[in-house]
Write a structure and sequence with these properties.
133 residues, mainly beta, OB fold (Dihydrolipoamide Acetyltransferase, E2P), four-stranded antiparallel β-sheet, 41% strand, elongated
Length: 133
């Protein structure tokens, strides 16, 4: 495998708002036992660590079921109001992320106890959007 012509690609990635340029080398799948790490391009020590935690299910607060933002984005429209009764799977909010409209649905049947965001507001991943009781 040492004599093969391997393709290298320069990629730009953004993690938590910081942009990094990385060079990757494509290796063959057949017979490949491990990836080689280039000693000429060390990984910067300032790169943020990406947590390897499993996705959490919505938490149940004392007041009810918390509905978190699954991804960062902007609240385009809120389809319910405080006091409304919703069914599991019903669209409750539209969140714009990466120029796409994402339907956020109720995870459980219940009544809207509190809406913690407003239309036009930017939210982070995991931020509580509303509570269903």
């Amino acid at each position: 495998m040492k004599g093969e012509n391997r393709m290298k690609k320069l990629l730009r990635i953004t993690i938590e708002g910081k942009t990094y340029e990385v060079e990757v080398e494509e290796i063959g799948v057949e017979g490949a036992k491990s990836a080689e790490i280039s000693k000429t391009a060390p990984v910067p020590t300032t790169a943020p660590q990406i947590a390897q935690t499993p996705k959490e299910t919505p938490k149940v607060a004392a007041e009810g079921e918390i509905v978190p933002a699954p991804i960062p984005g902007k609240v385009l429209s809120i389809k319910v109001k405080s006091g409304d009764t919703v069914a599991a799977g019903q669209v409750i909010l539209i969140l714009e992320a990466m120029k796409m409209e994402n339907e956020i649905t109720a995870p459980v049947d219940g009544q809207i106890k509190e809406i913690l965001v407003s239309e036009g507001q930017s939210v982070n991943s995991g931020e509580t959007l509303l509570i269903i009781g």
